[in-house]
Amino acid sequence: MAAxxxxxxRMSEADVQAIDADPPPWLLQSRVNRTGKKxxxxxxxxxxxxxxxxxxxxxxxxxxxxxxxxxxxxDELPPVASGTRRTEFDGIGSRFVGVVDEAVSAD
Length: 107
Ligand SMILES: [Zn+2]
What we know:
Shape: elongated
Bound molecules: zinc ion
Radius of gyration: 18 Å
Helix content: 10-25%
Largest sheet: 3 strands, antiparallel
Number of helices: 2
Structural class: alpha+beta
Number of strands: 5
Number of domains: 2
Order of helices and strands: HHEEEEE
Strand order of the largest sheet: 3-5-4
């Protein structure tokens, strides 16, 4: 089990505390799976460069069409499709901007 994630077979108490203080995404995921509750962590992945981090979703987060690091320029994202409107949400996770493309009515 542990070996699959590249952990040493024996971990010192300090190692355990370090990993517990800053758990990697796979550990968070396995904790979520173990409790069987609704996931309290989501994996945010930049649509442009692929940078990824686990974050606690906020209640106000919509379903993002795209996620990008906050220093990318908007034109690095796929163009807005005709008939859709793009809205950006700052402050997603530690460094992301969430982007939602939604259809706008013809009138
Ligand atoms: Zn990025």
